[in-house]
Amino acid sequence: MDAAFTEEQDEIRRTLRELLHKRCGPDDLRAAVRTPEGYDPGLWRQLAHQLGLPGLALPAAYGGVGCGPTELALACEETGRVLLPSPLLPTTALVAPLVLALGTEEQRAELLPALASGELTGALAVPGGQLSTALALTARNAGDWAGGGRAGGIQARECGGGGERGAAGEWRLYGEAAQVLGGHRAGLLLVAAHAGGYARSRTLLFVVRGDAPGVVRVRQTAMDETRALGVVQLRNVRASLLGAEDAEGAEGVGGVGGVGGLERALARAGAGAAAVLAAEAVGAAGAALERTVEYVKVREQFGRPIGSFQAVQHRLADLYVQVQAARSAACYAAWAVGGGAEGAEPGAPGLALAHALETLRAVAGEAVQLHGGIGFTWEHDAHLFFKRAACDELLFGPVHRLRAHAAETAGVFGDGATRAGVSA
User: Fold this and answer.
1) Phi, then psi, of 165 in degrees rounded to 5
2) Looking at the structure, do residues 54 and 161 belong to the same domain, yes or no?
3) Do 99 and 134 have their domain in common?
4) What are the CA-CA distances from residue 297 to residues 285, 300, 301 (Å)?
5) Number of domains into which the chain is organized
6) What is the mean pLDDT of residues 156-178?
7) How does DSSP assign 304-342, residue by residue?
8) Does residue 395 lie within any of the structural domains?
9) Out of 139-143, 167-171, 419-423, least confident range
10) Does residue 173 sit in helix, strand or coil?
11) What CATH number has the domain bearing residue 219?
């Protein structure tokens, strides 16, 4: 692995940092999270049109920039520094890779250019708070996480043909998914639903337009306002299958069998999302540490800056080492996801995410402590970093499960890579 960044990668980082420094200050951030979208639509359009951020990792054939996971991770490290509220993560790291991997050529041609341009935002709706399981981050993604044929979850029914039931080949969805990232405003929903009852039980992904009849969406109150979450209710909603199912219904592009393509695609998307999230957490941790270092230089106790005390210096030095280690792990994870080498560890993205989330939590906690009384106030920014750390771990963790599953995937405890369902 070559740890040096290219000139193009450095330019992406520099340009994005300059723009976000001008457009995403503390007051801008607080105003953006209180909009109906949960982010600044004007800034999102600027990021999309001027920098091509939503399509950074998409092929040029579908309107993307044609870069890879490393460039996307670098960009997300910069968005993490300012805790940017945006639909970037669900659109670019979750929905777009799944459409690219599973969609038919018609679906790709219709959806990917709109996603790449930022005109269409996406969200992945997984029922029961099982997002980390669906993405194979904390457990195997084979099983009944989409409903399992029981009441609850999201159920899919294929229409027979004509009449009120709908046209042949059309599907109807009903159920509910909570904690959907960006789900309250996304124009495109990829919905994981259980189909086939008990006889032909399987999980499928469906394409649903956000404004389709029967879709009811409500923004949830979340601890971290910079991560907008929504509840998505589907009331007999028309949907189309992502990809194409074969005659047997078990092994097509969208089908899930014993070695189903959907499971592998979700696991690959999960690995990419883990690398992006790790980079984002590293950016947030680095920014929180920089602010804390600057503050201890001016905060005085006993007639001298607290930064001159050796105990404080040691605490900050330990955090600096932890941040740099997390940054290295995140870069390696992005490189591995991009096919950097055949010998790259399969569990690298999960381990990188675990280390980055743990680092952000440690840095944010120390930032609150070293800022003293002001660090606990609502007006200061320290609590925003702490909430980002806590909520990301709730959504994609916990850390110990990320590490355990990464170890299983890497085969530390045996033939884990095959059992985890992520082998090629």
Assistant:
1) -70, -20
2) no
3) no
4) 19, 8, 11
5) 3
6) 74
7) EEGGGSHHHHHHHHHHHHHHHHHHHHHHHHHHHHTT--T
8) yes
9) 419-423
10) strand
11) 2.40.110.10
- If you compute the radius of gyration of the chain from its CA atoms, what whole number of angstroms results? 22
Region 371-378 average pLDDT: 81
- Give the pLDDT band of residue 148 (cuts 50, 70, 90): low
Q: Quick check: helix, strand or coil at residue 175?
A: strand
Domain end marker among 257, 282, 306: 257
- How far, in Å, CA of 76 to CA of 59, rounded? 19
Tokens at 3, concatenated: 């740890």
Residue 42 falls inside a structural domain = yes
Residues 287 and 238 in one domain: no
Copy the structure tokens of residue 261. Answer: 């393509």
Q: Which tokens belong to 382?
A: 């320290």
- Kindly write down the DSSP assignment for every residue of 226-250, as one continuous string: TS-EEEEEEEEEEEEESS---TTSS
Whether the pLDDT of residue 161 is over 70: the answer is no
Q: Which domain holds residue 181?
A: 123-257
Number of Cβ atoms within 10 Å of the Cβ of 421: 18
CB 375 within 8 A of CB 367: yes
Cα dihedral across residues 180, 19, 5, 354: positive or negative: negative
Q: Are residues 275 and 373 in the same domain?
A: yes
CB proximity list for 214: less than 8 A, separation 6 or greater: 234, 235, 236, 237, 238
The amino acid at 81? R
**Going by DSSP bridges, is the β-strand pair 171-181/202-209 parallel, antiparallel, or unpaired?**
unpaired
Assess if residue 59 is contained within a domain. Answer: yes
Does the pLDDT of residue 252 top 70, yes or no? Answer: no
> Per the domain annotation, does 424 fall within a domain?
no
> Distance (Å, rounded) from C-alpha 408 to C-alpha 350?
11
**In 3D, which of 83, 23, 89 has the Cα closest to residue 229?**
89
Same domain? For 299 and 368 the reply is yes
Separation CA 329–CA 349 (nearest Å): 8
Same domain for 357 and 387, yes or no, is yes
Residues 404 and 349 in one domain: yes
Measured distance CA(263)–CA(256) in Å, rounded: 7
Q: What is the pTM of this model?
A: 0.90
Helix (H) or strand (E) holding 387: helix 382-396
For the domain that residue 358 is a member of, what is the CATH number?
1.20.140.10
Nearest to 207 by CA among 117, 124, 88, 113: 124
CA-to-CA dists, residue 413 to 249, 270, 303, 408, angstroms: 34, 21, 55, 6
Residues 159 and 247 in one domain: yes
CATH number, domain containing residue 76: 1.10.540.10
- The two tokens of residue 238 are 């028309």
